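Re-running the complex after MR caught last week's input typo. The corrected sequence lines follow. Everything else is unchanged.
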Amino acid sequence: SQKIEQNSEALNIQEGKTATLTCNYTNYSPAYLQWYRQDPGRGPVFLLLIRENEKEKRKERLKVTFDTTLKQSLFHITASQPADSATYLCAHRNQAGTALIFGKGTTLSVSS
Amino acid sequence: EAQVTQNPRYLITVTGKKLTVTCSQNMNHEYMSWYRQDPGLGLRQIYYSMNVEVTDKGDVPEGYKVSRKEKRNFPLILESPSPNQTSLYFCASSFGQASSYNSPLHFGNGTRLTVT
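Corrected-run output:
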């Protein structure tokens, strides 16, 4: 079955540092990966999508990489702020196109 | 404002008492889906719909029903709720298939259900 793993359940960093979150996938090579942000008790919100032929994608302080050889995506938040504290979810669509499969998420805490 | 609206936000009920969680989207999306989110298990798909009158099971459909009579609405029905259905539920939608390249999933704000 298609799986996505986010290795760290929690990541604690200081304000101003760069946060790096890891996402690994197995058993299937998706055409693109997506990253979502989820605040407690709220629905996930789409952040970025990266296609398999794109090595890197940026949006403001966010950067995503996609390594199809390693079957891994890295999600970076530069100059992190306490407002960046949330759970970040990696996801890819299943082969049938009927579902988005999510990792369990990494909860980021940024302290001032 | 483009959004997915779920109701209610919180619901406490007893075992066996039928309930419906409503979901409505105003973006004219073909695809809609229900997920449940549990600690340690993440988001799991319950049912999905590719368009009006087209629904199918996801990974954890037991104990749930859905209907898609109109494009904008996709209610989740629990005919006889049990305590193991206590969870946080999310409705989501997108154009075309599930979260296509040009149309990521839009989620509602969730319904926290407790079954005692």
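None of the earlier attempt is carried over here. The radius of gyration of chain A is 13 Å. Chain A has a mean pLDDT of 94.
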